[in-house]
């Protein structure tokens, strides 16, 4: 890292290759607040494009972007396969601006995930953010309760931090 007692670490995890997997319902909850300008929004787009490479025909994708307000940009979209053009277009079209209502974005994402939930599917909410919250509910315990309740319904949260060091709030992620 860039100082005494600071370390950089990168971890990669890969499961065994499998010919088949259960269909997925993914709900991207993408931070487009002003703090995501520059490298963070580029990382966010790269995360979505990387996940898009692993999608299969018939997977369902939802996406909500959020800053001070939420925008549902994909709902119940059935992908055509890996690198689905519609999903890639939405990822590449995200632009940052505004405040940061992480709780509002997460709630909107969970509403979409619940609406398109499939018992036979892998159901995931993928929160991509720098972890900041300066609008709406900012208490991390209240924000955390959203994912805790959804775990019981079989919708699991994956958090992806976009950095950079010094501007990333891992306590909320």
List keywords for this structure.
5-stranded mixed sheet, 173 residues, globular
Structural overview:
The chain is of the alpha/beta class and 173 residues long. It contains 4 helices and 5 strands; from the N terminus they run βαββααβαβ. Strands 3-2-1-4-5 form a 5-stranded mixed β-sheet, with helices on both faces. β2 (60-66) and β3 form a beta hairpin. α1 (39-52) packs antiparallel against α2 (85-92) and α3 (102-115) runs parallel beside α4.
List the helices and strands and how they pair.
Blueprint: E1 24-31, H1 39-52, E2 60-66, E3 70-78, H2 85-92, H3 102-115, E4 122-129, H4 140-151, E5 155-161
Parallel strand pairs: 1-2, 1-4, 4-5
Antiparallel strand pairs: 2-3
In short:
With 173 residues, this protein is an alpha/beta fold.
Given helix and strand content, the structural type is: alpha/beta
Q: What string gives the helices and strands in order?
A: EHEEHHEHE
Number of helices: 4
Helix residue percentage: 25-40%
Main beta-sheet annotation = 5 strands, mixed
User: What is Rg?
Assistant: 16 Å
Unreliable stretches (pLDDT < 50, length at least 5) are: none
Structure summary, number of beta strands: 5
N-to-C span: 21 Å
**Sequence of strands across the biggest β-sheet:** 3-2-1-4-5
Strand content: 15-25%
Task: Categorize the overall geometry.
Answer: globular
Mean pLDDT, nearest integer?
A: 81
């Amino acid at each position: 890292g860039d100082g005494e007692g600071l370390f950089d670490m990168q971890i990669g995890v890969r499961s065994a290759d499998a010919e088949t997997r259960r269909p997925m319902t993914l709900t991207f909850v993408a931070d487009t607040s002003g703090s995501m300008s520059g490298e963070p929004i580029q990382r966010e787009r790269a995360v979505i494009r990387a996940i898009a490479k692993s999608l299969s025909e018939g997977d369902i994708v939802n996406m909500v972007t959020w800053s001070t307000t939420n925008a549902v940009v994909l709902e119940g979209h059935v992908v055509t396969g890996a690198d689905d053009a519609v999903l890639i277009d939405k990822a590449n079209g995200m632009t940052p601006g505004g405040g940061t209502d992480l709780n509002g974005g997460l709630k909107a994402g969970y509403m979409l995930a619940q609406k398109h939930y499939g018992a036979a599917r892998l159901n995931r909410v993928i929160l991509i953010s720098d972890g900041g919250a300066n609008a709406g509910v900012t208490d991390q315990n209240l924000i955390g309760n959203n994912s805790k309740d959804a775990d019981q319904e079989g919708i699991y949260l994956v958090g992806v931090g976009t950095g950079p060091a010094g501007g990333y709030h891992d306590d909320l992620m």
